[in-house]
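Continued from yesterday's entry.
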Amino acid sequence: MNKPTLTTATGSPVADDDNSISIGDRGALTFDNHYTFEKLAHLNRERIPERVVHARGTGAYGTFTVSKSLSDYTIASFLQDEEKQTEVFVRFSTVGGGQDSSDYARDPRGFAIKFYTEQGNYDMVGNNTPVFFLRDPIKFPDFVHSQKKNPRTNLPDPAAMFEFWANHPQSLHQMTILMSDRGIPATLRHMHGFGSHTFSFWNDKGERFWMKWHFKSNQGIKCLTNEEAAQASPFGAQQDLVEAIDRGDFPSWTAKIQIMTEEEAKNYHINPFDLTKIWPHADFPLIEVGQLELNRNVENYFAETEQACFAPSNLVPGIGASPDKMLQGRLLAYQDAHRYRVGVNANQLPVNAAKCPVNHYQRDGAMAGCPVHGQSSIQSSEVNFYPNDQINEGAPVPQPSVAEPPMPILENAWIKRHGVANDEDHYSQAGDLFRLMNESQKQQLTTTIAEGLVQAEASVQQRMLEQFKKIDPDYANRIAANMRTLG
């Protein structure tokens, strides 16, 4: 059997991959060790900047199969026909920790899906919770800083977390979920996923609908206590997913949506674009629309999972954004992060590349020249501006038929910094969640909060307890009692 020849990065055969050229057996190396230098220089550049959030992740490929046509709501081609199947890449992640953190941190889990549709890539970039800590992206950098390690000690800093939350009661709903018995998923297979944001659908009549994504685990929900998580392997969740897929135990989720009409949104008693709030299922029931299955592991973690770039701005005709302020901020931030972290041509990498024809006038930049799926390189000698005189010869042109319907603004709306109203309700939905819990769940929730809050300053403790009391007096009383026990 002929063995392939080891080569340099430019294809030249390598004579010896074990020994550098030196002046005698014990002498110094010579400057013509270009192959040694190539290996060392490449090693110095193997790592790219880790994600600021969602740094620790695990990915796999699979399929999304439609079980209910959504043609009444959207022109998105991959949602038109029952049994239509679309290839996907899914990346799960912890949020706050770096790549060195544990799979079992008490932290939200990222749940991102890249749909490779025939109209381009659609990314659903969500979490395993239906809400988030914030409603305005201007506070996101501050929130992230409060959840990271202490700048002096480089250690986890619960006091900073609670200090931020004490000043932002809009976080109470998400914080209650995070500190509950569902705060540490046992595996990535045993947790739900949510788009969390409000998105828009529009159909072929030009009608717009607001919608939310829900992905319900068909494996059920399994979580760990703090004590169980402390004993678990830091790589346990990643190992579990890889091994499950390798043995043919393919995890799956039932995809569901909530739909709200534009008219309902105008008059609903909560802001439907507030990321800290859910849409009650009693008012907007879940509609089952498909099945998500993961059935193929990556071949190279770095090339695929680490370089995968998800962005809420990766939309297709029939699916759009909404006035959700956090979503609006993410439309800029995610693409900007990928251009910095991976490069301006990140979408040419195989894991990110669309599996449909790609035609645009963007040119050059780092890593330019990768061929996209089924095509030659986008970098060519063809015209690179629009409009041009080559339209009749095949140069790409816009397609007006996929335009999103115009979105009205509120009558007499003023452009200014709109803050949270003094009477804003940060407490009812968190209270509803607390009262749904059984005795064991309430005890675990309040004990976990107390263990962190007891490390905060007295003024932070006082403000947090006042806020918990507004959620439910029993909530506050249990935390206070646990804090006294902890001393």
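--- second protein ---
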Amino acid sequence: MSQSAFSYPVLSQKTYFIRTFGCQMNLHDSERVSGVLDACGCLEAAEPAEADIVIFMTCCVREAADQRLYGQCSSLKSLPAAPSGKRVVAIGGCIAQRDGERLIDKLDNVQVVFGTSAINHVAELLAHAFESDEPQVVTVEDPACDATALPWHRETPYHAWVPIMTGCNNFCTYCIVPYVRGREKSRPIENIIDEVTGLVRTGVREVTLLGQNVNSYGRDRYGAPRFAELLRAVGETGIERIRFTSSHPKDLLPETIDAIAEVPAVMPHLHLAVQSGSTRILKLMNRRYTREDYLDLVQRVRERVPHIALTTDIIVGFPGETEEDFAETLSLARVARFSQAFTFIYSRRAGTPAAEMPDDTPRERIQDRFDRLVHVIEDTAHAFNQQDLGQVVPVLVEGVSKKDSHRLQGKSPKNQTVHAPVPEGIDPGSLVGKIVDVEVQTARTWYLAGEMRGEPR
């Protein structure tokens, strides 16, 4: 895209603030929006009060995201005047794609709405909003929009999100994503490899490959999934750490498991969303695998990668879930021995099949189930971390602990949070983006802690 595409004098020196809700794809989209604004001469602000432009990049998977958006948009009205004298509020992402112009009616201080495939229009829409009082809305998919070709303002110099595909074809009955992100569309494998190769040259040490279902990568473009081939090719670029998300159990092929086991750069961590341990509920969810299928898959993964960290998503309180169904979920969680799980109480999303399913389960009963599940996950997570006691783990340093500026914080290959004191005489900032070896002396439920050994690298 030419530089002239970002020539909007009205935006030059305007300050901007972006708040992101939701998944890693939204985080990456925010980095692209930020890159576009940087290219227009805008300046990033630390707080909404300091910004001429406030952008909310939204998620609509759960109802709480809608409420947070409405609350935070309304709170902007009480801020002092913007530095330039006019503040433009914009909403992007999935809620923008779903609701479009209705957001302008619901939120009277929002001037710009842009959908999931309209990031390349952001500068134009904002410029028009500053020059007129007319609302600016674009939610129609733009076939020419390739967000990966836009400028990029990465949050960190050592890690990068790399989308390999967009959209989803699965239509789980509880999920709004296929309706707001569209059908699966895979990027050419050559483009992804070129992008990662360029990132390695700039000093990036870890990439996370992104897709709603990475295991089906390439099916739309090449006629068959090529995710295993992609993992091997990315591993040959020289990148030190490869992660990926999200991974649908029904499409996790044996060759992908082999690539996880055999490519040194692929980290021993697999996020494999199960959603429920009940085959009956899985069928209602349209997940297209059974409880037995999932546990068999877990066994096959562990046979190839014995110490892999297995994480998951679980929904509690799906319409019609009985105590027997929930007991199946609890037992699956114990058998699978998850190192972490993102647990959610079912959130009804208008427009999805599950929203029409009757359910009279009392909220208190669902909350009780949720609490019981959390206890099981805490037990399995704590047990998983014990295997690293006394081990030396390589940690990619992300910064210092929020509670103690003299303790570094980073991630192990298994994606565990690791803490260690910063050695005397070393500036903590100099360690960010470095890999340090930490001898683990404490293993808690949600983190490891120990002492640095050797030199950072």
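Residues 363-386 form the longest helix (24 residues). The mean pLDDT is 93. Will compare against the first tomorrow.
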